[in-house]
Amino acid sequence: MKKLLIFAEILIIILILQCLILSKNYLIGIPILCAYLAYKLYKMRPSILAFKGNIAFEKKHFKKALNYYNAATKISYSDNFIKLRYAYIALNCGELDECKRILDLVPFNQLNDMLKNSYKMTDALYSWKSGNLKMAIDVYENIHNSHQHTLVYETLGYLLLISGDYKKALKYNEQAYDYDKDSSIITDNLAQSYFYLENYEKAKELYSELLLKNEKKPSFPEPYYYYGLLLNKEGNKTDCIKYLKEALKQREAFLSELTHEKINKTLASL
């Protein structure tokens, strides 16, 4: 159906251009073309607003991102992809009620498989932040069984870590690392798994790779925090403090258990 609509739109443009070329009266053809382009821009409003919202989100201008997406989803013909993206951004910004409100607007049974997975993943994260970690893990494990993807590996690996089942987390995060060694989140999840199972040598090896060998440094606090703890265990308090302070420079994420308060408490205890 979507391909048919695109074909129809291309056909309309061709017909308008033919009218312009064949007709000697451009005063008729040009207004028709302008009217059509204005109509297309009008129909693209949700996508344009969502695009602006994505840019704001990437720049960490979260209030702007929420405002753009809120405006996009208020348009009656805003599609489900935009709504699901807004639900995730709202959740990421700690707006649990808004996330749930948007999810309730999306007709799950009418979604394609890709959007159904997107819905389930956001809804699972909502369940976790609402106090039901087990449900979130169950949902992600079911998704993983049919859909291996870096994002699934990153999220499920972290959920298993915070569940405290470190042996299960290690097994899964080793599998995730084999799948995508370039993901800094997966590398961090695996390093944390080793850390909590007291395999400090392997944890340090991974964190050294992540923090000292990569040109692009992680933009989340966990690697700096745990690498600092490892240095402290070696008696290197000075560098430990340096990395803990670096962890504080990273944004505190709602979808993380590591808070600035926890980092500050660790610093105060040294």
UniProtKB/TrEMBL annotation:
It comes from the Bacteria. The keyword Metal-binding does not apply. Keywords: Membrane, TPR repeat, Transmembrane, Transmembrane helix. InterPro entries: TPR-like_helical_dom_sf, TPR_rpt. TPR repeats lie at residues 150-183. It holds the Pfam family TPR_19. The chain crosses the membrane at residues 6-39. This is Tetratricopeptide repeat protein. It comes from Clostridium tarantellae.
